[in-house]
Predict the 3D structure of the following.
Amino acid sequence: MRAPAATPWRRRVGRPRPVTAPWISQCVEGILGSMHVAFVVLSFAPTLGGVSLGRAQYADWEAAEAQPAEGEVTEGDALPPARLEARPAAEDERPERTTPASSDEGDFLRLSDALAGEGGRIVTALELASYVGPHDAGGAVRATVVAVSAVGTIAYAPSRRVRLGAQLPVASAWLASAELVADGRDVSGLGAVVGNPVVMADLLAPASASALRWRVGLGAALPVAPRSTLRHAVALGLGAATRGAWNLWHWAAERLTPFGVARVETDLGRRLVGGLDAALGVLLDAGGGSGESPYVAQLGAEVDWSLTDRWAAGLRMTAVATEEVLGPRESEQLALMPYARRSSADGRSLVSAAFVFALDAPYGPSFASGGVWGLRLAAGLLW
């Protein structure tokens, strides 16, 4: 019996269509299964321990005045760059901040934007999202779920204005005591699946051109995610839900999605930055289904506050609109995301933590019956 329509891409979930070799699926399920243990701990941990969260370092201080002021260290006695922050400086000496406040890909673009001006730099990042709690898949099942998904990113800046990148999403969901609402059949178990890989290219504004910073880009999500089992559909749906449906093309089964993105931001004060993100894509049917190609549009707005030279916190709100993908009666998803981050002393790495609160259906309100929340952890590293 076919399961009733439920979460995103849950249509035809009862039709077995394995698209990967058995040993690949077993490896993916083994790896993601072990991640559940770590995320159950992280989901209830009050802090991130000794992990360093943050903000990009100040610009190079070597362009400071050639002649030291009275009481200032000379060139021969200059402190290492990491310790220069202890030296008080006049307001007009401090460099302008030209790096963006945050990003939708788990902060990797923050490092990439800051360093693209140097050219020839590689940035890698990993973003994880989790959810632990009851889940009904839009009324299709009754289950307690432990869901973990990840998006790995690599970006390379061959010049000062161009950045190339790729992303690989994976999702998993462990369904405990799960049964189909339609016939009571037990569907407990682990579903692990590879999402749709993304390739992209961005054009960046010159770092010192103006106080208004921007980037525009084009990309495509390749149709790799299968629509083979209910557990796979739940894993993909929760991969989207724990991110407020942002970048929906990562998790849309059997869809080829060309998309365009843009971001603009400016300083609102000495330590305050405002930013806007927008994207538009078309989810092309690549699985021989109905042939429909719904659009997906997303808009994000945020305010970022630099608490110190390394610590920052902010609030981000997102809206995602589409057709028939979020459900037969749902066309949009609103979400609120408070976040915090901190960079390393040398500015070559950062980590961040965020909580995603869904404000309305289909994934929210987050703590209401049938709602889903998301705990996101991300880290980026410059090589």
Observations:
- Confidence is low (pLDDT under 50) at residues 1-21, 37-109.
- DSSP finds three helices and 14 strands in the chain.
- The radius of gyration is 22 Å.
- The helical segments are 22-44, 108-116, 230-241.
